[in-house]
Amino acid sequence: MREEATAVSRVVPAASGTVACVLLAAAALGSPLLLAPVVALLGLLLAWGWPRLLAVPSPTGAGVVVALAALAAVAVVVAVHVTSDVGPALAAAPDAAGAGVLVVLGLSVVAAFVHQVLRTDGRPRLAESVASTVAGAALAALASGWVSAAVVRPGAVLVGATAAAAALVVSALPWPQRLTGAVGLVAAAAAGALVAGGLEDLSALVGAVAGLVVAGVVAVVDRLLVALPRAASRRRAAVVGVAAVSLAAVPVQLLALVVGP
Q1: Which residues have CB under 8 Å from 9's CB, separation 6+?
Q2: Among the listed residues 43, 120, 53, 50, the one whose alpha carbon sits nearest the alpha carbon of residue 74
Q3: Rounded CA separation 212/235 (Å)
Q4: For residue range 9-21, what is the model confidence (pLDDT) as tens digits?
Q5: Rounded to two decimals, what is the model's pTM?
Q6: Between the CA atoms of 213, 216, 220 and 222, what dihedral angle is there, to the nearest 10 degrees?
């Protein structure tokens, strides 16, 4: 029974995260703004599963805060890019979009405290509930970085999504996490280099470095969340993969901005 639970907590996150990566990569091959509904969907999945994965008191209210953060961040990024008529030659809009996402993060903290004020259950585990809600809202909002990265450099999304998928697949192997983490770094670096090497505006070296960073994010999330007791549930375990892909948006957006248009 314990072995089955362990298998679920390892395989299901890898599967859900890989599916998310495939959707992101497929959207990036079309229009950058096609990533918006995909990222919004990831945010809604986080909103449903994150409070339940962490056994947060009043999970419905916490989920509402996370969902609002996800949708608001995506809306801000899309609005900035659409109204600015941004193309690959302009880098000002990503800065504006980033500032907008920071505002969303700040408002999410306020919303998390308002949620606590409105609770009628005696507010048990108050600090834990606030911290968990804010963390979920931050993950959901930061996932909007996939959209910003696609507007500046769609190739960065392809590299990041492929590297994340490689690391996630390795994380499902029945090996100790320290081993899957190390192998995941190698696999993600190789995948990132392979994809970047086939693009005109990115080098294999840049792709390998990006793959290493993305794999590091996946390994950290895997190490922190897979061990949670509730990660043995298939539905809740799926949230772990979504969380890893959401957080991976940060290095992918950084890649798009640092390499430049």
Answers
A1: 226, 227, 231, 232, 237, 240
A2: 43
A3: 28
A4: 789 999 999 999 9
A5: 0.92
A6: 120
